[in-house]
Structures are given as structure tokens and as C-alpha cells.
Amino acid sequence: MTTPHGISATGTTASEADASRAADASPSPAALHSPEAAMPQGWSWRLSLAQTGLLIQWQIRRSLAYLPLMVVVQVLLATATIIGFGFLAGDLTPEAALFLATGAPTITLVTVGLVMTPQEVANGKREGSLAWLHTLPVPRGVFLLADLTMWTLIALPGLVLAVFVGIWHYDLALSPAPWLPFALLAVSLTAASFGYALAVLLPPQVAMLASQLLVFGILLFTPVSFPAERMPDWAQAVHSVLPFEPMAQAVRAGLAADAFEVPARAVVVLALWCTASIAAAVWSLTRRR
Fold first, then answer.
1. What are residue 113's phi and psi, to 5 degrees?
2. What is the pLDDT at residue 150?
3. How far apart, in whole angstroms, are the C-alpha atoms of residue 102 and residue 255?
4. Rounded CA gap, 54 and 48, in Å?
5. What is the DSSP letter of 259?
6. Nearest to 162 by CA among 246, 101, 243, 119
7. How far apart are CA 204 and CA 127, in angstroms?
8. For burial by CB atoms within 10 Å, which of 28, 67, 135, 138 has the most?
């Protein structure tokens, strides 16, 4: 309410009140100088893509010293899984050889996600590079997207080699399904996201020990390189809700669609684990410390 002389009940003139309202409505200097304000509306996703690309380049350049060693480890693991397990099994039928060879790529993807990813994140926590990255004005989801992309790319050499070693050693003929890349991506995302969350939430030494125990259990006690029917009933029941058997079933059916198929239950279980693993990784990065 104003008086006839333009003075409000609080003692300010109408012009002063209008100026105050205009100042409240105007953006702050920080907002004016932010990257989002400088770009047209709807371009924030382009900024996120650019940030993701730069982070991937930084992570790869930072890891150049030991990337060749990672590739060598994957090569040895793929060869040992296909040829070494074949020695243990003895004379393999063509069906058993195909089952073993199509399980090796899953072993490679899971090993990269559950062993190499936690070890690298744990090293980043110890040396302080992870904390430094989190001080950058970049959304935490972009960090996760960049890391998951990098680890998926790192898993490709071992994955491809595992397939070719199986074809060469057992003289196999594969029949890839058109949806194979999506199955490989789902397995890689699930394993790497789970390993990432594990390393962020646990102390570095505990995370590395847990990842080692997980990979030993996966190599020896999961129905990836052998049928689930060989396991006790209780173990089959446990693996029916764990992601490892559905991972192997998805990749196996994607590589040899004429010989194998993916049960609907496996698709549901893998999708749930993939969603839960990514959500756990995002939460571990965004939680209040």
C-alpha cells in the first residue's frame, strides 16, 4: 500500500520497491558466468558429451603406462579359460567345446569389471586423483559414464581374442545374433558398475581383496564355463538370482544363436542387476561424505 506521495507503508518509495523487485528477479553474477548460462537452452547435453569425451581422454592417457599390461592379462586369461579348462575336462564333444568357448568372453568382461575396475578406483582413492576429479565442476554422472566407457573399451581386446581363440582351438563355427552388442554392453555395464561401487564404498585394501575373492569364485564356482546342472540344487537356486549365469547365457546365445537361447528369466535377472549396479554406482558417487 502506498501513500499519495508514492511512499509505501514500509517507508520506501514506489521506484525503490520496483528496483528491489528487479534486482531480485535478475540472475546472480555466478549464474551469468556459468557454462549453462552461456549456452542456448537445450545445449546442456552437448556440454555433458564434451565433458565425457575429455574425461575419457584424460583417463586413457593417465593409464597408458599399464594399458599394455592389462591387454596381456586379458590375453592370458582368455587363453587359459579356453585351453586350460579344456585340459581339465579332457576330450570335449563339439557341444561341450562350443559351451566352453562361448563362456570365455563372459569371464573376460566380468574380470575387467570386477577386478581391474575396483583396483584402478582404489588406486585413485589412495593417490588422491579420485578426490581431485570430484572437485571439478562436472556432474558425478559424467564421471561414471566416462569410466564405464573406458573400461568397456579396455575389455574389447580380450573379448575379441577369446572368441578367436575358441574358434581356432576347437574349430568352431559361430552364428552371431544381431543383438549380441547389446548383450555384451549389458554384461560389461553390470560388472563394471558393481566393481566401481564396491571400490568407492569400501576402503582400498578391502575393495581389492573382495574383488580377488569374487573373481576366484566366478572362475571356479559359477556356471559360466560349465552347465549349471553339474552343481548341487542349492547352488543352482543361488545362481538363479545372481547375475553370472544370465550373463553367460546372454553372451553365449548371442555368439551361437543356432545352438543356444536366452531364457526369459535370464533377461529379467540381468536387466535388474544392470539397473541396480548402475544405480549403486551413481549413489556411491553422489552420496554425502
1. -75, -40
2. 81
3. 7
4. 10
5. T
6. 101
7. 11
8. 138
